[in-house]
Design goal:
Rossmann fold; 228 residues; alpha/beta; single chain; 7 helices; seven-stranded mixed sheet; 36% helix; two-stranded antiparallel sheet
């Protein structure tokens, strides 16, 4: 739990998972849908089930994660779902059109661009036509907070450079972060996106049908994307 969230307080962990479920329900409601409408759901980057532990009402719930110890723990502690370790790169062990809903909590907030593009294409592949994906990203608000932390900690020049990169590219990948020198791989650090980048670039694989600023735990942005 602490490895994936940075928090060792189990009550905080539980409450954040419940809040994320509410966030998912709220964005689905914008489109007249509920979780009960979906028969087969994929939690991409399930971790130790922060969100999935609150989804036991789903008819068929599948979670994937690259960390083997997390999948082993889920199989022992949360037997109501199907938990599978995925590789660093696609494909997932599912046929095309296997799921009608994909959810994720704070995965594309960490992957580098190469991994993001590969996994966005793969999530599109495993979704049924018309299926939905609810994806979170660290948008303008988290990035502004990151820049403020640089300025407050004596690195204003670095803040200027990173802001210029973000404005030019539409995203900023940060390797010098709290995930450095941990058990996580070198392609897993901190990623920030502008909403405009997401709307344009991710449209290669999905139709973006809604966006909720700070819609994930009042911090990250949420989008609802539809498989075309």
């Amino acid at each position: 739990m602490e490895l994936t969230t940075g928090k060792s307080n189990f009550e905080v962990f539980l409450s954040s998972g419940k809040a994320s479920k509410r966030d998912i329900e709220q964005v689905l409601a914008l489109h007249g849908r509920t979780l009960a409408d979906f028969s087969r759901v994929l939690d991409f980057g399930v971790g130790v089930g922060r969100v999935s532990r609150h989804l036991d009402e789903i008819a068929e719930l599948v979670g994937v994660d690259v960390m083997p110890e997390m999948i082993a723990w889920l199989k022992e502690e949360m037997p109501f779902g199907t938990w599978i370790q995925n590789n660093e790169y696609p494909p997932l062990p599912f046929d095309a059109g296997s799921f009608d809903l994909v959810i994720n909590h704070s995965v594309f907030t960490h992957l580098n661009i190469e991994h993001q593009d590969l996994w966005l294409a793969e999530l599109s592949r495993v979704l049924k036509p018309g299926g939905l994906a609810i994806l979170s990203f660290s948008g303008d608000v988290p990035f502004a907070g990151y820049l403020k932390s640089l300025r407050d900690n004596g690195a204003p020049e670095r803040a200027i450079i990173h802001e210029a990169d973000f404005l030019r590219e539409g995203y900023k990948w940060i390797e010098e972060d709290s995930w450095r020198d941990t058990d996580f791989p070198d392609w897993y650090h901190s990623m920030f996106h502008s909403p405009q980048y997401v709307f344009k670039h991710w449209a290669q694989w999905f139709e973006i049908i809604s966006w909720k600023k700070c819609g994930n735990l009042n911090f990250q942005d949420n989008i609802v994307a539809r498989k075309i």
